[in-house]
Structures are given as structure tokens and as C-alpha cells.
Design brief:
Elements lengths: L1 E9 L6 H14 L5 E7 L6 H8 L6 E7 L5 H10 L3 E6 L9 H10 L5 E6 L6 H17 L9 E7 H9 L7 H6 L5 E6 L13 H15 L2 H31 L7 H33 L6 E8 L1
Helix pairs in contact: 5-8, 9-10
Length: about 300
């Protein structure tokens, strides 16, 4: 059995392929005391990434598995496909753009050897763009407050975990979920180390705004009852507000008789009321849809083909 499985999902990363190959090869040669297994997952790339990686890693020293998915299922589903085929003492997620430095893997492994089943790499720097900083800070704050108090202040992307954790994840493959949060909520002995996230050197990030919004919704709906509880509290608040407002109008009409009939107040109340109702129905629908989706038991990923090298 190898020591560490490097699980690397990629999507349209042909521009970054040579850089990734060179860095991985250099990293493994520097750490010959450990045995690595490299698992690359093509998450439905629309360019020639799969063919390019297959040609590049044909001469790669060590065990390499390249898994091609039938379509783009998302990075979380892709790493789950990699976990199914991992055969190491520990597994770790590695970004294909290497914004999380490879030397971090050794730090995570050394920390795990102290007796931890899970070791998270917590970022100590925020993203460069304003929107990404706002999103990252807000997401981390809400996850820490409403999902898990152990969630790092600036968030995390990389985590190393034992084969025991891998077995648990493979038995509980969740759709429309966050695998990082699933690991965080398992409750096993864990530790955190900090690191400096690098700037992407090649190609363009595939982490789009739509994917960020989906992760935000999935994280709350899959791991927290807060949205559905919010609907209940909001409903109670609006009901009490309506009762108080109705009493005020009734007594003013009865005593002062100074209210002028008109459509302004009625339209305002209707707009607010219907707006809140639609938001509430949308939140409830998210839970119902995920319940329905889970009941169908459709596969979270579909593997098209697997290429293996062992040099």
C-alpha cells in the first residue's frame, strides 16, 4: 500500500498540464521516502485535457490513475470518484492549478502521524479580488456560526485524512453536498495547520460565480436547519407585526378617524407579503428537491474510462 493518494480533479486544464506534471514529478523525486499514488479525475473537460494528461503521465514515475467522467459533475463529485479508486494509507485533495502548494502535503502528513485522522489546511490569506474576498469571508463566517464551530475563520480547501475516513465517505456518497463539510462533521480526531495560498500561474480558474452560489446553497441545505428555521421565525414575526399593525389601524380609525383611504399601503403590504412568501417557498422547495433527488438514488458521478500507469 502506498502512503498518500494525491486526488486531483481537473476541468479544461490543458494550459496548466505541463506545469502540473513538472511540479508533481519534482515533488515526488524530493520525497522518495514516501510512496505516492496520483489520481487525476477529468471532470468532463471540453478540451483535450484527458488526452494531454494521458500522454504526459505515461512516463511518470510511480502509480498514476487517470479517471474520465462521462460529463461535468462538479469538483466535489470528481474527488468522490477518485476516492473510490484510492488505495493508500492517507488521501489528500490537491488543486490542479497548485494554488495549494504540494509541499503542504508533507506538512499535513507529518501532522497526521501525530495521531490525527483528519488534518485540515487552513488558509491564512484571503483571495485577491474584492468579490472573492467578500464571498470567502461571508461563507466562512456563516459556516462557523451555523454549521460547524470548528470551521476555520478564512476557510480551507485542502484536507488530508486516513483510510478510515475514506471508507466512511465511500459508504456515504452525498449528492448536492460539500465533501469538505462532510469530513469536518464526521467527528473524528482532527487538527489544523495554516498555509499561504498561491496565485494561479497558468490558465483561468473554473470556479465561477454560479458554482460558488451552488456551494453556498448546498452547504446550508445539506448541513444546517437554519434556512428552514428562518422561514418559521420570519413567519411568526410577520404574523405578530400584522396583528399589531391591524390593531393600530383599527383604533386610529375608531378614535381619530384620520386615515385616508388609498392603495399605497395595500400595495406595499401585498408586495412584501408575497415576496416573503415566495422566498419561504423557495427555501422549502430546496429541501424538498434534495429529498426527492436523494430518493431517486441517481449516481453522483459516472466513470467513462480509467487509464493506469505504474512505472
Amino acid at each position: 500500500m502506498t502512503n498518500i493518494s494525491l486526488i486531483i480533479p481537473f476541468y479544461n486544464e490543458i494550459e496548466n498540464g505541463t506545469f502540473l506534471f513538472t511540479e508533481l514529478k519534482s515533488f515526488i523525486e524530493r520525497n522518495r521516502a514516501l510512496k505516492f499514488e496520483v489520481i487525476l479525475i477529468d471532470d468532463g473537460s471540453e478540451d483535450q485535457s484527458f488526452e494531454f494528461f494521458s500522454d504526459q503521465f505515461n512516463t511518470f514515475p510511480g502509480i498514476v490513475k487517470i479517471i474520465k467522467l462521462s460529463k461535468n459533475f462538479g469538483s466535489h463529485s470528481a474527488v468522490r470518484a477518485g476516492l473510490i479508486h484510492a488505495n493508500s494509507e492517507y488521501c489528500v485533495f490537491v488543486s490542479a492549478d497548485l494554488q495549494d502548494p504540494l509541499n503542504l502535503v508533507i506538512d499535513l502528513y507529518n501532522e497526521a502521524k501525530k495521531g490525527f485522522e483528519i488534518v485540515f489546511a487552513s488558509r491564512n490569506n484571503l483571495p485577491t479580488t474584492f468579490f472573492e474576498r467578500i464571498f470567502s469571508s461571508l461563507y466562512s463566517y456563516l459556516m462557523k456560526k451555523y454549521v460547524n464551530k470548528s470551521y476555520p475563520k478564512l476557510g480551507f480547501d485542502t484536507v488530508l485524512f486516513s483510510s478510515k475516513i475514506k471508507g466512511n465517505l465511500n459508504l456515504n456518497i452525498e449528492a448536492n453536498s460539500s465533501i469538505q463539510l462532510q469530513i469536518l462533521n464526521l467527528g473524528f480526531k482532527m487538527s489544523f495547520i495554516s498555509y499561504q495560498k498561491n496565485i494561479r500561474k497558468n490558465g483561468k480558474s473554473k470556479w465561477s460565480t454560479a458554482k460558488k452560489i451552488k456551494l453556498f446553497i448546498d452547504s446550508f441545505v445539506a448541513f444546517s436547519y437554519v434556512p428552514i428555521r428562518f422561514v418559521t421565525i420570519l413567519g411568526i414575526f410577520l404574523f405578530l407585526t400584522g396583528v399589531i399593525f391591524t390593531c393600530i389601524l383599527f383604533f386610529r380609525k375608531l378614535i381619530l378617524n384620520d386615515l385616508v383611504s388609498g392603495w399605497t399601503m395595500l400595495i406595499s403590504i401585498l408586495c412584501i407579503g408575497f415576496g416573503v412568501t415566495n422566498i419561504s417557498l423557495g427555501i422549502i422547495a430546496e429541501y424538498l428537491w434534495r429529498t426527492f433527488d436523494a430518493s431517486r438514488n441517481r449516481p453522483v458521478f459516472i466513470i467513462d474510462e480509467i487509464t493506469e500507469f505504474n512505472n
